[in-house]
Amino acid sequence: MSGAAPMRIGAHLPVGRGLAWTVRRARRLRLDCLQLFVRNPRGWRARAYADREMDEFRSRCASAGIASVIVHSCYLVNLASPDEELRARSLEAVADDAVRAARLGGSAVVFHMGHHMGAGVRAGIRTLARSLSSLVKGLPEGVDLLVENAAGRGTEMGGEWEHFAALFDLLDGDPRVGVCFDTCHAHAAGYRLDGARWVSRSLAGFKRTVGVPPRLVHLNDCAAPAGAHKDLHQHIGLGTIGEAGFRALLRRRELRGLCGILETPMTRPRDDLRNVRRVRSLMAPAASP
Ligand SMILES: [Zn+2]
Ligand SMILES: [Zn+2]
């Protein structure tokens, strides 16, 4: 992506009313990109889509000016699991998500780094690297794998930049695997983002340690204190990251041109619209301090 382009704004949208509705919503919100689940997010079951519905989605997105579609894998996926059965299931789900992403005109499948479940971080990252290497072999053209950072609770990995550095070492810098940077998760993991100085410090640490820039951003404010390791999303500007933090994030050079996907709470109708508007106003030059 061009270093000069502003961040492209998107949102995670529901698919329960059909893919045509999803694109209509994206159009109404004037999104540049969107993210969706293609299976039950808290189960394994894949949604049944007719090929025609997926083809129509792709062409509708193109005519709505949606430059990028991202598929988020379900939360049960754990490619780092020491349990072979769970790992096999996870591999199958992500491989299938990638095939669907390709059919939908998507550019990436995003999933969390996973849990080592007591095997230890080193073993967990080794298992994850093995899983990713095998997935990359069968990956459809144009669809990459993005590993998301986490709040780092319990045996959950991805709460420290060093985990990504270790993973990319094992993968030998495979270009088909990148990082999705979730602002809420980073802040919750202790990489503070509540203000320009913290943003610059945390992103510099990311760059120094991981070595590659993020490829996707999840734009979420955080409802818990920095470093509390709690994954609680909040509306943009109303959490512990706050407006100053987002204003700085949205201006960072290394994040420009990337898709920034909102995964903010949907408790009231039009919450999505309010968050999109808030992000756009924080991006506007007039909003700069
Ligand atoms: Zn996220
Ligand atoms: Zn989260």
Describe the model.
With 289 residues, the protein is α/β, with parallel strands linked by helices. It has one domain (8-287): Divalent-metal-dependent TIM barrel enzymes (TIM Barrel, Alpha-Beta Barrel), CATH 3.20.20. It is built from 9 helices and 10 strands. β3 (68-72), α3 and β4 (108-112) form a beta-alpha-beta unit. The two termini are 27 Å apart. The structure holds zinc ion (ZN) (2 copies). Residues 148, 182, 218, 263 line the site of one zinc ion (ZN).
Please give the structural blueprint.
Layout: E1 8-12, H1 19-28, E2 33-36, H2 51-63, E3 68-72, H3 84-103, E4 108-112, H4 121-137, E5 144-148, H5 161-171, E6 177-182, H6 183-188, H7 196-210, E7 216-219, E8 221-222, E9 233-234, H8 242-249, E10 259-262, H9 271-283
Parallel strand pairs: 1-2, 1-10, 2-3, 3-4, 4-5, 5-6, 6-7, 7-10
Antiparallel strand pairs: 8-9
The structure holds zinc ion (2 copies).
Q: What are its keywords?
A:
alpha/beta; 8-stranded parallel β-barrel; globular; two-stranded antiparallel sheet; single chain; 39% helix; binds zinc ion; 289 residues; 9 helices; TIM Barrel; 15% strand
